[in-house]
Design goal:
The complex is a heterodimer of chains A (about 300) and B (about 270).
Chain A: H1 13-41, E1 44-45, E2 52-53, H2 61-71, H3 75-82, H4 84-116, H5 123-135, H6 138-149, H7 154-162, H8 175-199, H9 203-211, H10 216-227, H11 229-244, H12 248-252, H13 261-271, H14 275-307
Antiparallel strand pairs in A: 1-2
Chain B: H1 7-30, H2 47-52, H3 56-89, H4 96-108, H5 111-124, H6 131-155, H7 159-167, H8 172-201, H9 204-209, H10 217-227, H11 231-272
Helix pairs in contact in B: 1-11, 3-6, 3-8, 4-6, 6-8, 7-8, 8-11
The chains are: A mainly alpha (about 300), B mainly alpha (about 270).
């Protein structure tokens, strides 16, 4: 095993191919497209197929490149700043995502806690029950809420029948419906990492606290909560980041004045057919999300190192 | 310390799971509703299911979706398993952090960005859009999920068995198929299933990358949902939910059985030495 010491092992052809195949696939179909999005965000909209100008051709060599460069304009970005629809969409997406993440945390924590404290033989089944909705179509789960939340929907029928309210509550097509949709759809993403960190928690710490006369709520506050922070952080990132760019939930449950950037981008692309502006919207969204994505990845790496 | 679940824990579990499952249960119940109004019960009927199987467009979309899901899940499983092996086994190499970044970023990246960027790539490549472009798009994000699932399986894997085989002269590719793959198989299978259902579900990325003649089921459902809630949609959704539920439960039971069998075999093998 002394050969193992050298850190840069000579790789066989096979192990090079093992790295190269998935690496190239991701470079071509994940990384390269971002540069194209950036390039098109600098072009102008045109009535053509594809609907943008100028097209930049590598075959024209350096002069072609310089020419294309002079054709680029930051007009789309200036447009994004000038038209308040866009920055309002970004702000309101971030706000909706943040509030929904906090609600998801409040709803999800007791579930994860209950799972981690349940008898050992229940846990695989409970875990399965949390994962199962994740496998069920996102679209279906959002759709299911329409029948419940709409004005003549089941929730209003129930509340009216019970005499709790006299006239139907307007929840459908409001921001409240979007919160419910996000919390419902992303709950498993928060519960799973949280459960993982709560389950590892050493019960004897809590027993020691109890023996020394610490009341349960205080033991929770001083011991359980701080030790579950890694799970809380991971779960919150997993909810927050995708929720910012969410399209289906605001589109189906939200109203016409629910501003979310995913929906704005969709409308810009499919209804207005303005590819350059939708590309610029995507570039800015990406720049905003790079910060939480990098933070999340560092957090995960730190966790992985701590475990090994 | 009290043993057994406390009152608080049981309540939070019951409420939590009710919240998770009640909407789906209601959706399934109302797919058997006689009345066209989805929220008023008009008696039991299976007529919406009968209606579904007469809807040619819907069946076409379902067929396209299944083909895309099967192909993309299979390719994504191969690529994702390779990526997981690279992440766990390959040590340091140039571009490693870029590589792991490209594996983890698609998991949280908003779908609108992935969809738009892939579409623009296909346009730049002058590629006619349709079945194949959706398939490639789904493969790309699904392989990242597969990589993460298989990776977690590989981390807890005893490498010495594989090393023993190689010390005895077994070539790496052979030892992978004879030893590593059977052991990580539950992870690979779970990865394939996850990739399959992700592809089955996806609306946003498919809408961006598709072309004429390749409408998928979620796109069809979405365009109908926008027109309003109907019992037919409840019926399609019910079929999908039932299929996925059975698939997941069957796979988890199968992998558990296999795991028990394997643990038993390993004990027997080490006991014999």
């Amino acid at each position: 095993m002394s050969q193992k010491k050298s850190q840069a092992p000579k790789r066989s052809l096979g192990s090079k191919a093992l790295i190269a195949v998935p690496f190239l696939w991701l470079v071509i179909f994940f990384l390269a497209p971002f540069f194209i999005v950036f390039k098109i965000s600098l072009s102008e909209v045109a009535v053509a197929i594809p609907p943008y100008l100028p097209t930049f051709d590598l075959a024209e060599g350096w002069t072609g490149f310089v020419e294309a460069l002079s054709g680029f304009s930051f007009e789309n970005y200036i447009w994004l700043i000038e038209d308040d629809l866009y920055w309002k969409s970004y702000l309101s997406s971030a706000q909706i995502a943040l509030i929904s993440t906090l609600i998801t945390l409040v709803v999800g924590y007791p579930i994860a806690y209950g799972m981690a404290r349940s008898p050992k033989e229940w846990r695989p089944t409970l875990l399965m029950l949390v994962i199962l909705p994740f496998w069920t179509s996102f679209l279906i789960r959002v759709y299911a809420w329409i029948g419940i939340l709409k004005n003549e929907g089941l929730l209003n029928q129930l509340l009216l029948a019970l005499g709790v309210i006299n006239e139907p509550l307007v929840i459908m097509n409001t921001d409240l419906a979007v919160y419910i949709g996000i919390v419902y759809s992303y709950l498993p993403f928060l519960v799973l990492p949280l459960y993982a960190s709560l389950e590892k928690l050493d019960i004897s710490l809590l027993e020691a606290a109890e023996d020394l006369g610490c009341p349960p709520w205080k033991a929770f506050w001083k011991i359980t909560l701080p030790l579950s922070i890694p799970g809380v952080v991971a779960g919150c990132f997993l909810v927050f980041i995708p929720a910012v760019g969410e399209f289906v939930i605001p589109d189906l449950l939200g109203g016409s004045n629910t501003l979310m950037i995913g929906k704005t981008l969709w409308v810009e692309f499919f209804s207005n057919r303005d590819w350059p502006v939708s590309s610029a919207v995507a570039v800015i969204l990406l720049l905003i999300l790079v910060v939480p994505i990098v933070l999340f990845q560092n957090h995960q790496q730190k966790l992985a190192e701590m475990q090994s | 310390m009290r043993s057994g679940p406390t009152w608080f824990n049981v309540t939070s579990l019951v409420l939590g799971f009710t919240f998770l499952y009640l909407p789906i249960v209601i959706l399934v119940i109302f797919s058997f509703n006689e009345s066209r109004l989805v929220t008023v019960w008009g008696g039991f009927s299976t007529k919406w299911y009968v209606e579904l199987f007469k809807n040619k467009q819907l069946l076409d979309a379902a067929w396209v979706t299944l083909k895309v899901a099967f192909l993309s899940a299979s390719i994504a499983t191969v690529l994702g398993t390779m990526a997981a092996l690279v992440l766990v086994r390959s040590g340091r190499f140039v571009g490693r952090s870029l590589f792991s970044g490209m594996i983890f970023a698609p998991l949280v990246m908003p779908e609108v960005i992935l969809g738009l960027s892939l579409l623009l790539l296909f346009v730049a490549m002058d590629q006619a859009r349709g079945f194949w472009t959706v398939m490639i798009a789904h493969t790309t994000f699904a392989m990242c999920y597969v990589a993460v699932v298989v990776q977690s399986r590989l981390v807890g894997f005893d490498k010495s068995i594989e090393e023993a085989a190689e010390d005895l002269g077994c070539p790496p590719v052979r030892s992978f198929f004879l030893i590593t793959l059977p052991i990580i198989f539950p992870g690979v299978l779970a990865g394939w299933m996850l990739a399959f259902t992700l592809s089955l579900d996806d609306l946003v990325i498919a809408s961006f990358t598709t072309g004429p003649g390749a409408t998928t089921l979620p796109m069809k459902i979405y365009s109908q949902v926008r027109l309003g809630v109907t019992p037919e949609i409840n019926a399609i959704c019910t079929i999908l939910v039932v299929l996925v539920t059975f698939g997941v439960i069957a796979a988890s039971l199968a992998s558990k059985r296999q795991e028990l069998q394997r643990a038993h075999d390993e004990r027997a093998a080490f006991g014999a030495n």
